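Re: [ENG-882] Designed sequences occasionally contain unexpected residues at chain ends

Forwarding the minimal case from QA. Structure tokens:
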């Protein structure tokens, strides 16, 4: 049976984990077969989950079970009888009960004095006098004093006297009424078995102080089909108490909840329900602020809401039977948001008035929406207006007075050319509903228009008929963020992308035909390419790596990358890391200005260097100085090189695809904050320095779409550089020339050793236990002009010298004799034709 959690008025934030509503403490010899059994039956009849222990034999294991039951109950019925105090077991229960009550105001004690005067219990007189006289002679006085105190405290609480003046039936009815009167909140965990759920139409009417009623099921969307087959004993019309403020019923099977709604209702949330309508006519609900009927697929009509003047949010997302929204919703003076996206049958949104408080209308993915006639005015500037993936062919005339929208979405249409400059911060585009032609033709026409010259973010959402992004995309001089979501026929991005001076974020998701990424602009800081299975060529992730900046570049499930592209990506990791640790030559003003203009889209919790890409062969091994062995795949212990130019290290780990299967268990609609990885670093030097620090990151995956689980299809490598972590480790040893110390024999020696221990970890949030296949580090040195460095490290050279050496005949003759591993390292250093004017660091041991 689904469990009730009931809470008393004192509860400010009632817990939701209690197993029982009521715990009964009694002496079985006095009341087991009479009053207590009748009381228990009445509680069960009223669907109050009750713990009662009829066992006569007691023991240690039973006591632990009772303590747990006491702590998991909310109301305690203590049946004081003539021999209650004679049971040390009962007194121990009472001590535990009163401790719970004193620690937490949520707990409620109801004493019942069964054929005994309350004063006898309170003062331990009458039959209790002789009982405690015996205790005083034979037991510890401290324990006896504790028992006396809890009896006094409990007997001072207002309760019920069963002394023959009223029948037992009347007293039991009064106890039930007192318990229900005390209830302010009811929480039912519907993830439990609900086959036995039985609710009478008047069940809640008997609870006049009930303020919150919650039937919570965070997996209601998964049970949608199953729940229709369940046989639940539910009424067709519930009578709800007028004090009820909050109603939550996930997956409600009823077609209609009630005909008389509580006038003090503040929030109504019934997602994934079978509700067809809320009410007929106008309903006076002056306190109602939120209506959430998300994915109630049988919801046929939005009711008249004119009697809800304080309504702020109406969420009707995924109500597939909804054909229109009542015009009264737009007349609400305090309405802030209307969500009707993914309403397949919705044909019109119209009204003669629009709330001045309106902040967002979300109506995308409504394929039959043909009319939008809501009078928008200049005061609505700054709102979110989503109309993409609809049947609208022309821009609504009511929106031309708007400006500075936060987000505007619409199907690709020539009418976009009519929008003014500074119209929206972000524009999202979709295919027209009847996409019979390549929308690239239309896009080529509209891109030069004023509205796109000032836009900061552009999203292409499910543009299945789009075959290319026109070269004129370079006209978007203010663009900082570009998303391509399921543009399945786009094979490459425009070469002019490198000319966008402010582009910082590029996200590409499930573009099935994408084969090539062109050279990208130097301003880019975030690149995320996800499930582009045909992507083969990456020309470069940086075009002019001259700026000291952070970077996050992710290639998830891009398993078709060729060898050259893989090398380019690895090369970029090194170049960006080298640039990050190089002291800036300018005064710093340039970087401060860049920081102010940055469009943040953080996917890691540290702002350094982070790359994710599929594993190919042994290339990563060749790039790193130290990597793990088969015996210890997630730990390293290494001596730090004694080099004054050493400034840190680059981390890497490889995790198998099998480690990510548990991601499917996570939330269905927002796959974010899932991939966690890092390293615990411990440094110990021979001169006594000890440092412990940690590098940790969470990779986030934010897509405004449903049902997209993160699924890693091959082994992937994480490579990252954490400047703060490296500084903490290197600070004690950098520049130290060695220290003379005396050994046990009194002789002097020089101490140069510093040992670094690294322990890597990775996994999903709340389950960071993925098995790491490999790990390693690469030492990072400052770029200084010098000859052959330690361990063969070469100096930094100019690009011209690299070209001269590359073109020499001797190099061509010797190329065939170079070992494959060394050739790979050198290939990472060769200046690419796409990297004009840059300086390349050769230190890739």
């Amino acid at each position: 049976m689904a469990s009730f959690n009931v809470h008393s008025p004192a509860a400010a934030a009632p817990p939701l984990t209690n197993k029982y509503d009521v715990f009964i403490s009694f002496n079985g010899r006095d009341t087991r077969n009479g009053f207590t059994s009748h009381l228990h039956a009445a509680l069960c009849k009223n669907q109050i989950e009750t713990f009662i222990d009829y066992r006569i034999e007691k023991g240690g294991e039973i006591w632990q079970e009772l303590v747990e039951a006491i702590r998991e109950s909310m109301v305690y019925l203590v049946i004081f009888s003539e021999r209650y105090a004679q049971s040390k077991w009962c007194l121990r229960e009472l001590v535990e009960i009163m401790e719970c009550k004193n620690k937490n105001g949520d707990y409620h004690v109801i004493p019942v004095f069964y054929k005994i005067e309350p004063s006898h219990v309170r003062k331990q007189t009458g039959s209790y006098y002789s009982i405690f006289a015996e205790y005083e002679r034979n037991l510890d006085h401290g324990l006896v004093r504790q028992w006396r105190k809890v009896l006094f405290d409990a007997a001072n609480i207002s309760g019920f006297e069963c002394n023959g003046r009223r029948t037992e039936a009347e007293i039991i009815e009064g106890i039930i009424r007192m318990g229900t009167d005390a209830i302010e909140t009811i929480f039912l965990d519907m993830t439990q078995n609900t086959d036995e759920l039985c609710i009478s139409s008047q069940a809640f009417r008997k609870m006049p102080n009930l303020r919150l009623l919650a039937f919570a099921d965070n997996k209601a969307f998964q049970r949608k089909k199953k729940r229709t087959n369940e046989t639940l004993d539910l009424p067709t019309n519930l009578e709800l108490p007028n004090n009820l403020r909050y109603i939550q019923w996930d997956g409600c099977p009823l077609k209609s909840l009630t005909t008389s709604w509580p006038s003090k209702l503040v929030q109504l949330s019934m997602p994934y329900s079978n509700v067809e309508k809320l009410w007929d006519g106008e309903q006076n609900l002056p306190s109602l602020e939120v209506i959430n009927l998300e994915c109630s697929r049988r919801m046929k009509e939005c009711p008249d809401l004119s009697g809800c003047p304080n309504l702020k949010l109406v969420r009707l997302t995924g109500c597939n039977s909804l054909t229109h929204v009542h015009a009264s919703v737009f007349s609400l003076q305090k309405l802030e948001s209307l969500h009707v996206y993914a309403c397949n049958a919705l044909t019109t949104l119209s009204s003669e008035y629009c709330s001045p408080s309106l902040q967002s209308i979300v109506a995308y993915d409504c394929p039959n929406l043909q009319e939008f006639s809501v009078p928008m005015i200049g005061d609505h500037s700054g709102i979110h207006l989503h109309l993409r993936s609809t049947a609208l062919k022309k821009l609504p005339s009511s929106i031309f007075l708007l400006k500075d929208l936060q987000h505007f979405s619409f199907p690709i249409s020539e009418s976009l050319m009519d929008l003014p400059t500074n119209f929206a911060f972000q524009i999202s585009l979709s295919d027209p509903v009847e996409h019979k032609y390549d929308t690239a033709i239309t896009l080529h026409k509209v891109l030069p228009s004023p509205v796109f010259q000032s836009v900061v973010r552009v999203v292409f959402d499910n543009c299945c008929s789009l075959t290319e992004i026109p070269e004129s995309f370079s006209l978007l001089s203010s663009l900082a963020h570009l998303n391509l979501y399921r543009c399945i026929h786009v094979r490459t991005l425009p070469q002019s992308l490198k000319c966008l001076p402010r582009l910082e974020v590029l996200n590409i998701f499930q573009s099935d035909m994408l084969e090539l990424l062109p050279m990208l602009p130097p301003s880019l800081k975030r690149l995320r390419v996800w499930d582009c299975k045909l992507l083969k060529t990456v020309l470069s992730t940086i075009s002019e790596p001259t700026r000291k900046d952070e970077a996050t570049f992710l290639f998830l499930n891009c398993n078709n990358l060729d060898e050259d592209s893989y090398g380019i990506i690895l090369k970029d990791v090194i170049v960006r890391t080298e640039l990050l640790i190089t002291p800036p030559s300018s005064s710093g003003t340039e970087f401060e200005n860049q920081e102010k203009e940055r469009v943040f889209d953080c996917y890691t919790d540290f702002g350094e260097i982070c790359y994710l890409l599929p594993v190919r062969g042994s290339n990563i091994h060749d790039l790193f100085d130290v990597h793990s062995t088969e015996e210890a795949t997630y730990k390293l212990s290494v001596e730090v090189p004694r080099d004054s130019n050493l400034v840190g290290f680059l981390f890497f780990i490889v995790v198998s695809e099998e480690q990510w299967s548990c991601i499917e268990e996570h939330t269905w609609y927002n796959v974010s904050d899932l991939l966690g990885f890092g390293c615990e670093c411990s440094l110990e030097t021979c001169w006594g320095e000890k440092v412990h620090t940690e590098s940790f990151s969470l990779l986030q995956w934010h897509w405004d779409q449903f049902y997209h689980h993160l699924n890693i299809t091959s082994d992937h490598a994480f490579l990252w550089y954490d400047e703060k972590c490296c500084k903490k480790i290197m600070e004690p040893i950098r520049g130290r020339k060695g220290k003379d110390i005396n050994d046990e024999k009194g002789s002097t020696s020089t101490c140069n050793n510093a040992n670094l221990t690294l322990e890597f970890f990775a996994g999903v949030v709340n389950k960071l236990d993925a098995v790491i296949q490999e790990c390693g580090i690469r030492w990072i040195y400052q770029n200084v002009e010098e000859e052959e460095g330690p361990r063969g490290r070469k100096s930094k050279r100019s690009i011209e010298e690299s070209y001269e050496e590359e073109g020499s005949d001797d190099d061509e003759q010797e190329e065939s004799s170079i070992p494959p591993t060394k050739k790979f390292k050198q290939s990472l250093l060769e200046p690419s034709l796409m990297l004009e004017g840059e300086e390349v660091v050769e230190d890739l041991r």
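QA comment: On inspection the terminal residues look reasonable. The chain has 18 helices and 37 strands. Proposing we downgrade this to a documentation issue.
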